[in-house]
Amino acid sequence: MDIKLVATDMDGTFLDSKGQFDRKRLKAVLEGFKEKGIYFAVASGRGLLSLEKLFDDVREDVIFIAENGSVVEYRGKSLYEATMSRDFYLTAFEHLKTCPYVDVNQLLLTGKRGCYVLDTVDPTYLAFSRQYNENIQMVASLADITDDIFKFTTNFTQETLEAGEAWVNEHVPGVKAMTTGYASIDIVLEHVDKGVAITALAEALGISLSQVLAFGDNLNDYHMMQVVGFPIAPENARPEILDLAKEVIGHHDAQSVITYMEGL
User: Fold this and answer.
1) Tens-digit pLDDT profile for residues 210-247
2) Are 93 and 167 contained in the same domain?
3) How many domains does the chain have?
């Protein structure tokens, strides 16, 4: 395989069920990638600040595709980004308030400098959000935010997940809702996803998508898995992703992704 870029989803793919990975093994893999001229990217629905913290000790060797494809950053330089204007996200919020499945006290906005929730936020949702996001700030109104916003994130119940996602896609102009795993939904600009971001990244790096290998497990990985030359899925991936994969590897809890990377 002529591989120039390896990209991996995080939760359910690269990370185990505890949200962890073997740092020593990754460092060794990245040293080998350097020698072979292979870039490494993490592609996640997680926020940029959260990913940078997670990979702090190897940050200079990692390309970050964050916010479900809303931003691509490498060594502190933005290679691609798609932000919502203030008027856009305030209008989108007014639509979301009318959704029968959305609880505005379980809603988070992710920006360049931090994340934002209403000061009436549900404490359980806030605790959950802190597992995946950094610098969460409470505001009395979304109109008080002065940051550039990438996306909304909210939680539905397992029973309302599909219906809630469909409602947002039908009733909120200019956005796309996608499941990120568990009961979380990301709401991004309608032209944004990991596939769009990785296409922009390949162009910035001067490589072909046929030279990109990507690991993914969930529907927010679908377009990324479609456009790359070598889509690989862990055995725990959703059926739609398994159908796209050229190869299926072990369960994410067995660190199958890093094992595969060690063999490249």
Assistant:
1) 999 999 999 999 999 999 999 999 999 999 999 999 99
2) yes
3) 2
- Which range among 50-64, 93-107, 153-167, 204-218 shows the weakest confidence by mean pLDDT? 153-167
Instruction: List all residues 6 or more positions away from 66 whose beta carbon is below 8 Å from its beta carbon.
Output: 44, 46, 47, 48, 50, 51, 72, 73, 150
Domain stop point among 171, 189, 207:
189
pTM recorded for the entire structure: 0.91
104 shares its domain with 184 = yes
> Are residues 148 and 102 located together in one domain of the fold?
yes
Which of 131, 154, 189 delimits the end of a domain? 189
Task: Check residue 182 and give its pLDDT.
Answer: 65
Taking all residues of the chain, what is their mean pLDDT, rounded to a whole number? 95
